[in-house]
């Protein structure tokens, strides 16, 4: 998928090149090249401390990388510092656990509009529309700091959305939020993207949500891009046995193709995994027997959670799923090639 | 105890009869301290903001310096300013000694470090997410500053109140630089010192009570304004 991202030349309007960022001399992000096209929803997934937020903050121009370049509409943003603010006004970020200013909800929502010189009447109308969208209409005069966690998150997104940004960055927007608010927020994100063509970046640890909402899912691990989904990411030890590299997590053993030895991480793209009710004799070197524990329909494909020593996520077409009459509790074989296991 | 009762009754009498001497002292105190605290705030607030948002070598030392200067003895400040504005001093030609302007300079020097140190503490107490959120919403530096100030407004008002409290009640520099000239540079505190030295304890006490009432009233007004901004 990263290949797709890199190769995607469909008017990339936001790009980063050779970006490295360090905190206290420790490298936390190292991205050789990434470009993004307008109007898409991108999800950035990865474990805690993998550099997701740093990447988002750099893309949102709130943090200058230690080295490397950030381009917006082809312009190197840090080569023209005087235009940095103008570019920044075209985008906005809703940080993780966003804070509302200590003022009314209405004043919070119109904050960015005031900066942009929007008239009072217009501001009032936009505030009302935005609050309606996040289902907080009537909250205008409420003290922002008195809202509940879910309400505050919705208000923060309304505040960001009010300025109709070309790009919107949302960092873990569902953390500490109730189910009802998550639904509302997901609707709002899809609507913003559809109605205004805003490019949206979501940072999330919920891969299901990422695949459900996003056009592209970017996986980041240890500050680097990973060319596979994080859904099947395991830590283990690689040993050489009779010219074969065996990756052992302690629960499963997989045949992999790598020159590395010792403690490594391995990831398997869910789309590279075949599901079968019977053992298959094929060129695929890895076959594990397990049970389906969860089935999720994202409207296009079926996502299965399979317990086979480790927890695997597998993607399949709805037709195959129906033909095989799979359900939660079905016993299946999951099969994938050793080359499908990316070791890093 | 007799002094106390006499003091209270004299204070009430002086207040209700609008004693011209008392009114005069009070007005001089208010004028000098208000101007001084206003000027000090104009310097201290931007200064505290610059110190808080910028990372520079020696930042901790600067903050410690302001913390230390909060405890500057008023008489030392009086002496310091005196040495500059006395007839022999480098600014002697300006003829500032024994004028309200000289008192304002002294009180400005006394209150600026206090307001700065407390404002630094107030701004450091603002959630760091506020600044990043303001930037993310497209605010320029000055608007980010206003937003941070607004978030810290209660603590900043408290810093200004503390600065005012420090100078309205000081006597050292006011006496040295103002000279306690009746109707011109005599403040409530210098009047208290004078009346007490003359043996007029009850009048001194009455003026003390009036000083407290003045300080209380200023606090109430500022707190009210603070509440209104919520």
What ranges of chain B have pLDDT less than 50 throughout 5 or more consecutive residues? none
Helix vs. strand class of chain A? alpha+beta
Oligomer: heterodimer
The span between the termini of chain B is 44 Å
Q: Please describe the biggest sheet of chain B, giving its number of strands, its sense, and whether it closes into a barrel.
A: none
Q: What's the SSE pattern of chain B? A: HHHHHHHHHHH
Q: Give me the Rg of chain A, rounded.
A: 22 Å
Largest interface: A-B, 23 and 17 residues
Q: Per DSSP, what share of the residues of chain B sits in E-state strands of 2 or more residues?
A: under 5%
Explain the overall architecture.
The complex is a heterodimer of chains A (344) and B (230). By secondary structure, chain A is α+β, with helices and mostly antiparallel strands. Helix content of chain A is 26%, strand content 37%. In chain A, strand 4 and strand 5 form a beta hairpin. In chain A, helix 6 crosses helix 7 and helix 7 runs parallel beside helix 8. The longest helix of chain A has 18 residues. Chain A is globular, with a radius of gyration of 22 Å. Chain B has 230 residues and is mainly alpha-helical. The mean pLDDT of chain B is 90. Chains A and B meet through strand 6 and helix 5 of A and helix 6 and helix 7 of B.
């Amino acid at each position: 998928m990263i290949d797709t991202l890199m190769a995607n030349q469909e008017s990339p309007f936001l790009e980063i090149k050779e970006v490295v960022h360090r905190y206290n001399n420790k490298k936390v992000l190292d991205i050789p090249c990434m470009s993004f096209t307008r109007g898409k929803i991108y999800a950035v997934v990865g474990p805690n401390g993998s550099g997701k937020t740093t990447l988002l903050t750099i893309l949102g121009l709130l943090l200058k990388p230690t080295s490397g370049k950030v381009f917006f509409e082809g312009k190197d943003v840090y080569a023209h510092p005087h235009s940095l603010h103008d570019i920044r006004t075209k985008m906005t970020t809703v940080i993780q656990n966003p804070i509302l200013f200590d003022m009314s909800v209405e004043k919070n929502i119109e904050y960015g509009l005031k900066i942009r010189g929007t008239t009072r009447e217009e501001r009032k109308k936009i505030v009302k529309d935005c609050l309606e969208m996040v289902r907080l209409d009537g909250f205008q005069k409420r003290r922002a700091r008195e809202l509940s966690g879910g309400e505050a998150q919705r208000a923060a997104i309304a505040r960001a959305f009010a300025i109709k940004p070309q790009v919107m960055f949302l960092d873990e927007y569902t953390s500490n939020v109730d189910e009802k608010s998550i639904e509302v927020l997901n609707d709002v994100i899809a609507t913003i993207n559809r109605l205004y063509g805003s490019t949206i970046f979501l940072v999330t640890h919920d891969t299901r949500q990422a695949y459900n909402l996003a056009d592209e899912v970017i996986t980041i691990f240890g500050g680097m891009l990973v060319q596979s989904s994080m859904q099947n990411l395991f830590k283990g030890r690689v040993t050489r046995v009779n010219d074969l590299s065996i990756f052992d997590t302690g629960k499963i053993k997989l045949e992999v193709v790598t020159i590395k030895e010792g403690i490594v991480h391995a990831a398997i793209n869910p789309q590279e995994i075949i599901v079968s009710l019977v053992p298959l004799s094929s060129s695929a070197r890895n076959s594990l027997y397990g049970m389906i524990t969860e089935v999720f329909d994202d409207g296009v494909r079926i996502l299965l959670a399979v317990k086979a020593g480790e927890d695997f996520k597998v993607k399949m077409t709805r037709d195959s799923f129906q033909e095989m009459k799979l359900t939660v509790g079905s016993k299946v074989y999951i099969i994938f090639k050793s080359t499908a296991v990316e070791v890093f | 105890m007799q002094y106390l009762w006499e003091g209270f009754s004299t204070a009430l009498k002086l207040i209700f009869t609008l004693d011209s001497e008392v009114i005069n002292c009070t007005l001089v105190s208010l004028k000098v301290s208000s101007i001084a605290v206003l000027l000090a705030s104009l310097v201290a607030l931007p200064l505290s903001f610059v110190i808080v948002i910028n990372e520079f070598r020696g930042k901790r030392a600067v903050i410690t310096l302001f913390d230390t200067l909060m405890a500057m003895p008023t008489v030392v400040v009086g002496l310091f300013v005196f040495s500059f504005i006395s007839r022999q001093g480098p600014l002697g030609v300006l003829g500032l000694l024994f004028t309200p302007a000289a008192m304002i300079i002294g009180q400005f020097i006394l209150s600026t470090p206090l307001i700065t140190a407390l404002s630094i503490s107030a701004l450091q107490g603002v959630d760091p997410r506020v600044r990043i959120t303001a930037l993310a919403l497209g605010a320029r530096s000055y608007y980010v500053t206003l937003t941070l100030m607004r978030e810290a407004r209660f603590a900043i008002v408290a810093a200004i109140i503390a600065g005012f409290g420090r100078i309205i009640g000081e006597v050292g520099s006011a006496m040295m630089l103002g000279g306690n000239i009746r109707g011109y540079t005599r403040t409530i505190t210098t009047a208290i010192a004078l009346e007490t030295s003359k043996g007029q304890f009850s009048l001194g006490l009455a003026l003390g009570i009036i000083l407290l009432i003045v300080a209380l009233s200023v606090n109430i007004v500022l707190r009210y304004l603070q509440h209104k901004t919520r």
